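Methods — Computational structure assignment.
A single polypeptide chain was analysed. Its primary sequence is given first, followed by the predicted tertiary structure written as structure tokens.
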Amino acid sequence: MKSKLTKKIACVLAGALCLLALAGCGGSNDTKKDAAKSGGDGKKLVVAINATFPPFESVKEGTQDYSGIDIEIAQYIGKKLGKTVEFHDMKFASLVPTLQSGRADMIISGISPTAERKEVVSFSKPYYFPMKALVFKKGAGYKTLADLKGKKAGASMGTTYVKELKAAGGIEVTELDNTPLVVQDIKNNRLDAGLFDSAQAAVFVKENPELEMAILNLPVVNDDTFAIALPKDSKDINKINDILKEMKSNGEFHKILVKYLGEDAAKQYEAAEAKLDIAKQ
């Protein structure tokens, strides 16, 4: 009797051990799957963007269908690196903290390599040299920042455009979460004007016939340019610079500009860029 009881206990223990072993195997597989989903296999390129900056980046409402100049640059870089690009959309002011925290591999979102930002992240060479433009209601006739003294003007929070408006003096400056909100406030007469990249300004004016724009006759300095931000002291800077150089030389960058700016605007931009000393560095 005792022998039979012993055998039964042994069988129960053996069955329990088998179940534990199976559970352990299953847990291991699940962990591997979770790692793959999180990009732990190194096959994803996570790019932080603020998708409210057409024609550089925008998104169809209610979707993750991103498009724009920066989006296509990111996709080209991903292709060259053999990685799938995953975009993380957020407020502009959150881009650098997100990169610093390791939740993104790079920022490609019309971001300028200012001295302040260079203290915490590294930048590629500039890939775009924007001219600045004011957007305002038709008939207002603003041509310079000096024309806005005693007026209200706005720009997207955390951008160099806010600094420019404040530096001009005599302007009541409003910072908003994104550029469409700036445009909306101009249309609703809450702002007299907004300061934007000229390419973006052209898109807003095209979409809103009641608005017009004036390109400012200002020099382009390093703080105005757009570059790709990577983690501080990243070893991939030279690799990214080589890819950007390739895009310019093989005509890929021209195709992207034509797609989003139009043939005439793209050629005008390229002609202006060719004259910039900063673009030759």
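Note: Confidence is low (pLDDT under 50) at residues 1-41.
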